Amino acid sequence: GEEAELINNDDGYKAPEKKTLDQLVNLDAEDESLKRYKEQLLGSLSTKPENAFPDDPRKFILSKLEVVVKDGPTHEIDLKNLDGLKEKPIEMIEGSQYHVQITFFIQHEIIAGLRYA
User: Fold this and answer.
1) Coil, strand, or helix at residue 3?
2) pLDDT at 42 over 60
3) Quick one: what percent of the chain has pLDDT higher than 90?
4) Which residues contact 51 (CB under 8 A, 6 or more apart)?
5) Please, how many CA atoms are within 13 Å of residue 101, restricted to the half-sphere of its CB?
6) Is residue 46 pLDDT above 60, yes or no?
7) Are 16 and 112 in contact (CB under 8 A)?
8) What are phi and psi of 12, to 5 degrees?
9) What are phi and psi of 88, to 5 degrees?
10) Helix (H, G, I), strand (E, B) or coil at 103
11) Residue 70 contacts residue 96 (beta carbons within 8 Å)
12) What is the DSSP track for 38-102?
């Protein structure tokens, strides 16, 4: 049905070639402005970034999902603990305007081409 159409959306997007953090840092190393830009994005290039969950091998960790209803409550779902989720459904008035906020962590390497569908 409609859900399958959303999941199998082939828009022709191709993720860029996978590169390690070291490869990205050393790419165009002679360009001073690019080096400063990378330091702004990545912090000090001489140290590895800290991982929020160092013992977790996952690269992408969903932490929290929030449904923010305009002129209404914010519904927060802790994605680290889904116990009891069915007992706390999100209720909204038909026609409500809302947006979704997702809190996540990227660790162990850089992820390129992250998409939300």
Assistant:
1) helix
2) yes
3) 20
4) 107, 108
5) 11
6) no
7) yes
8) 85, 0
9) -125, 70
10) strand
11) yes
12) HHHHHS-TTSPPPPSSTT---SEEEEEEEEEETTSPEEEEETT--TTGGGS-----TT--EEEEE
Instruction: Copy the structure tokens of residue 4.
Output: 């399958």
Structure tokens at 61: 């960790």
Q: Which residue has the higher pLDDT, 54 or 11?
A: 54
The candidate with the shortest Cα–Cα distance to 64, out of 49, 51, 75, is 75
Q: What are the structure tokens assigned to 40, written together?
A: 């702004």
* β-sheet bridge partners, residue 98: 69
- CA 28 from centre of chain: 26
For residue 31, pLDDT beyond 70: yes
Determine which helix (DSSP H) or strand (DSSP E) holds 36, and give its type and residue range.
helix 32-42
pLDDT band, residue 4 (cuts 50/70/90):
low
Which residue's structure tokens are 């165009």? 28
Query: Is the distance from CB of 43 to CB of 49 less than 8 angstroms?
Result: yes
Q: Which of 25, 17, 30 has its CA nearest to residue 48?
A: 25
Give the amino acid at 10. D
